[in-house]
Amino acid sequence: MQPIMNTYGRLSATFTHGKGAYVYDADNKAYLDALSGIAVCGLGHGHPAITQAICAQAENLVHTSNLYGIGRQQELAEKLTAVSGMDNVFFSNSGAEANEAAIKIARKFGHEKGIDLPTILVMENAFHGRTLATLTATANKAAQAGFGPLLDGFQRIKYNDLDAAKAAFANNPNLVAVLVEPVQGEGGVTAATDEFMNGLRTLCNERDALLMLDEIQTGNGRTGKYFAFQHFDWHPDVLTTAKGLGNGVPIGACLAKGRAAEVLQPGSHGSTYGGNPLACAAGCAVIDTINQENLCTRVSELGERIRTQLHKHLDQTGFVKEYRGKGLMIGIALNTEDNAAGIMKSALEAGLLLNVTAGNVVRLLPPFVLTDEEADLVAEKTAEQITAYFAAQK
Ligand SMILES: *Cc1c(COP(=O)(O)O)cnc(C)c1O
Questions:
Q1: Pairing mode, if any, of strands 22-25 and 30-33?
Q2: Using CB atoms within 10 A as the burial measure, which of 81, 165, 217, 267 is most buried?
């Protein structure tokens, strides 16, 4: 029997080192990384500022627990609240755990208002993680299969359907929060409409409910703002992030503002590792680097550049149904009902790392440190793979 539990159908490549937008295998074959470890390594591989921060912190102190003050955690909390305008933060080790904290805040917020069965409004095609509560909030039936009983306290509506949200609030007095991704990543790289996001903010204000944004994938510069909600002129009540925050060192964060920031008190939540010095040193270096190198602006530029190139290569072919996403979250919905996951394998063989999600959406999540030439290469190689896929279907 294999010693690793069989939870992933893995592709046949193993990488040994990386630099910038490239990773390499033991034979030194280079792969252009247009996936960034699933939106994690936004600063690419081996970024000197991150390497230096991790190494220096490891030499000093790796872990002490949350029973004591943690200087690095304080520092990261200050940076994160400054960059987001949120009031405070709880640190976890992963995205799912950050969402667990958000779900617990929503429930306790509800109980404090006298609602005994607090319910959270979630979306079709949502992905919020693999723990039992976040799996319940996730819309994927295949991911849920076999793990029942799932949790009570979630109600689902169609994404981008503001009327459905209004009806849900009108009919369900137990709704205490909305949990939503500003751009659905796993669900097909679908961006929320401005009308939907603005409408949810208004609705939550009117109904005294918490607007909770899952920015685990969209945060840390990925969409061209530090957080995707900054494309709008309001704040969420709760904001979760993870992936890009540590550039590969596991860390998650649940930020809150206003009354939501006062719900958790000593004894009500915790984590042994959460916010430890090593993870927070990486997080601090990520935020500093994104700010110093003006990477949010660069993400918007690169996103535009890659989209323009994709249009140039693919618009005459009829292979593309729709381009989706924001910034460097790029979805190419293919004109086929067939599963196109095979493109991941053929791209790998051609030295390109990308992903296919929701069956037929080619997903690019490249690092922010791409040069213009590398960005053009991502578009060119992706178009080649899509073209080869359709040629093989004939
Ligand atoms: C990846 C992701 C999660 C889960 O994060 P983990 O670190 O894998 O637990 C939750 N929500 C969204 C939107 C994600 O993209």
A1: antiparallel
A2: 217
